[in-house]
Structures are given as C-alpha cells and as structure tokens.
Amino acid sequence: MIFSSCVRAMVSGKEDEGGWPEFVELYQPDKSIVLLSDAAKCQSVEAFLRFCNLPVTRKYSKNAEFMSPNGEVPLLRAGNALPAGIQEILSYIQKKGMSSSELHLKSQEKAEMMAYISLVEKCFLPAELYMSWCNKEWAIRSRHKYGSPYPTPLNIILGYKKQMSVRNQLRAMNWHLKKEEEVIEEFKKGCQALAEKLGGRKYFIHDLPTELDAVVFGHLHTILMRYQPDDSLESVVKMHKNLVNFVARILKEYFR
C-alpha cells in the first residue's frame, strides 16, 4: 500500500504540485529498536517539520528501514512523493517553498548553513556510527537491538550483517582505521566549531530556526537524552553550555 501512490506517480510522470499534501505520514523505526544515528536523523526531521509547522501522522515500525526505497530513515509519504532520509526530506520541504531558509536567507547565509550541515554529517554521524558499531560494548548492544524484532538465528545474522555494512560505510568515510580516542577528538572539534558559531544567539544563522538548527538539535538531543553504554559523546556535548541550552530551548518551544 505504501508504494502504490508512488508507483502511480512514476507511471504517469507526475509529481506532487502545490502546497503541503493533505495526507502525510512519517515512518520511523520503532522506539524500542532505533539506534543512535538513526534516532538522530529522525529527530532532526521531526524538529524541522515542527519548525515549519507542517502536520504529519507519525508511524513507528520495526521494519521502517526495509520499507524505505533507499534504506534510509525516516521515510516520508507525502501524496505521490516518497522521500527517505534526512537529505531527501529536507530537500522536499525546500522545494515546496516552506523552509525558512528559502524564504529568509540570503545566498551567502544559505552557503554558510550548508557548510555547517556538512560539518555535522562528516563529524557527528561517523562518530555515532563508530561508537555504536566499533566500540565493543556498544556494538554488543547495537547488534542485539537491531536484530531483536526477528527470531533466532535471523536476529544474530542481521545484527552482524548490519555491523559489516556500517564498517564498510566508515571505510568509505576514511574513519575505519581511526582509534576511539581520535574519533572522540574529531567529535570534540565539531562541537567546538558549533559552540563558537552559535555563541550567545538563539539560532545558528537567522532569527528563525533553519535546517541547520534542526540537524544540530537532532544529533545533540539524541546524544544527551538516549541511553548509551558510556558517556563518551555526552560528556563532550555537556562541555558547551550554550549547546545544552540550545537543545533545552528547542524542546521547550517546539516539543511541549
């Protein structure tokens, strides 16, 4: 059912036009199995939807990753469109003209915003993946959670298969040979850069929250709030009071 409208759109060659579709669903991994990096992506998308005041129906599924056309989560079903993963979903919202960055930012500010989003993607995401799947204690928990919806021995097979996939992803990022101390140091540099950029301001680029605020919030909130086997990443974030306050402010203004 989820792919039927998308298939019809491909056959007809038509895409969604106009404003925000009346019927939109956001599919995310079930909260009992979602891991650190995927939780951060989902929280980033959730934040941006709230920034833009865009209504969605939230769906949680234990096989959300396998429902996605590209294996990325979360998955947005919006009329005939089926964007999956944070980049595709943010791009979809931008093309609809509902992003504050499209409405209010100058070209130079947009370029700066994209540069800092790239920083997060090249620093925070690989650090989360490395800790979740390469740190011995974290990896045991990650394999267990990832495979938990499935019976034995499928759960074990899928857990190790996912671990190999992530390690290949880290290899493509040139992070596979890093020691854990180097990973934490890279994460520290990323947090320091963001803390300096934010300074005492409410948001990173503009007086309204943008995609950058959503992406940073998603990662920082997930690191601060979700249980982890140790505080390797959490303790780094807590070194920057303005980043912690930023997360608390977004929670208060958009999630309560």
UniProtKB/TrEMBL annotation:
Pfam families: GST_C_6, Tom37. One of its GO terms (biological process) is protein transport. InterPro entries: Glutathione-S-Trfase_C_sf, Metaxin_GST, Mito_Protein_Transport_Metaxin, Sam37/metaxin_N. Keywords: Membrane, Mitochondrion, Mitochondrion outer membrane, Protein transport, Transport. GO terms for cellular component: SAM complex. Residues 42-162 form the Mitochondrial outer membrane transport complex Sam37/metaxin N-terminal domain. SUPFAM superfamilies: GST C-terminal domain-like (SSF47616). Its main location: mitochondrion. Belongs to the metaxin family. This is Metaxin-2-like isoform X2.
